[in-house]
Amino acid sequence: MKQLTGGAERVIRAPLEDCFALLADPDGYPRWHPDLVRSVEVLERGDDDQPIRARTRLRVSRGPLTHDFDVVLAVLLAPLRTVTLTRLAHERRDREQFQMSWHLEPENSATRIRLALDATLSVPRLVPVGGIGNELAREFVAAAERALTRRG
Description:
The chain has 3 helices and 7 strands, in the order E-H-H-E-E-E-E-E-E-H. It has helices at 16-23, 29-32, 132-151; strands spanning 2-12, 37-45, 51-62, 65-78, 82-87, 97-107, 110-121. The protein is globular.
């Protein structure tokens, strides 16, 4: 098992409400970040019609190495503040973990978006993972900014 952590942040010229709407909609992730998020299927919605569980296929590709991860994620929303996507274990002995936490703060006429990634994954011992977490977080934040810019 290898630990993978990372983070990125950026101030985006978009209203807080638009940023939250984009990040709180897992169905939309493949449209604005298709290189990493290959597919999403919402499995369960709450009474407010917000997603609370989703099946996701993620593709991580670095150099000659490519790996697809099929995960079921719990979606936890704190309106206009945070969006947290957490991998649900397949079985009791499953030790792999994955969590993405988006944090939003209004900043003048823009929004500060911060993303924290934290994962413990079964990766072959000889595969280096140093810096990948920060790189993935930067790519996610940049993709969100592009999507929000196109909307505006």
